[in-house]
């Protein structure tokens, strides 16, 4: 179960981080809106970097959860 939760959090983190990065790059470099993020909420470019940070945090939590040693129950 721990591995499944780790992979799920990591996968969601990759998607969120990628959407934040695409949103930031498209707004700052091209002046347009790309990705799915702008369809949900209208954010300034600086807030898109916050979305990238949230995605990175989820990836790190997922990897740490997946790689954590399993606890043994007292028997």
Q: What fraction strand?
A: under 5%
Number of domains: 1
Average pLDDT works out at 88
Tell the overall outline: elongated
Structural category is: mainly alpha
Distance between the termini: 21 Å
Radius of gyration: 16 Å
Largest sheet: none
Explain this structure.
The chain has 75 residues and is mostly helical. The chain has one domain. Helices cover 75% and strands 0% of the residues. The protein is built from three helices and no strands. α1 packs antiparallel against α3 (45-67). The model has no long low-confidence stretch (mean pLDDT 88).
Short structural summary:
The chain crosses the membrane at residues 12-31, 43-63. By secondary structure, this protein is mainly alpha-helical.
Defining traits:
mainly alpha; membrane; 3 helices; 75 residues; elongated; transmembrane helix
Strand-helix topology:
Elements: H1 2-30, H2 37-40, H3 45-67
